[in-house]
What we know:
The N and C termini lie far apart (43 Å). This protein has helices at 2-13, 23-33, 48-58, 60-69, 116-124; strands at 19-20, 36-42, 70-76, 95-99, 110-111. By secondary structure, it is of the alpha/beta class. It has a five-stranded mixed beta sheet. Helix content is 42%, strand content 18%. The chain has one domain (15-124): Glutaredoxin (3-Layer(aba) Sandwich), CATH 3.40.30.10.
Amino acid sequence: MNKFVLLCLLVVSLNAFVVESSYGMAQQKAKRLEKILMVFLINNSCRECNRELSKLLKSPEITVLIEKKAVFTIVHREQKESYPIEMLFTQEYPTLFFLNASELFVCDALSGEIETSKVESCLEKD
Length: 126
């Protein structure tokens, strides 16, 4: 019983959010919930991608904003059939895209070294 309570407290204190497993599922959920769709596009050979993703996930301010205002998904460039490659085109990785329910860009894509202040700014736009 004590382990269960501890686990519940840990989950509540993490400010966790769900990372959707596919672009399609994330898009549908964002549309249904009227939230921003955040697409973190990575390349398998990208060394910086994990570092930038970790930086975002370790920021309490960012995780709280994502939970409240966005649906987050990670997309691999190599899986071209799983996302609209023409719309989310980039040659720099990682790239973070912010889309509204109509799949229009909420703000400019963030590439390379992603500044958390710019992510916050994009998520604050309505």
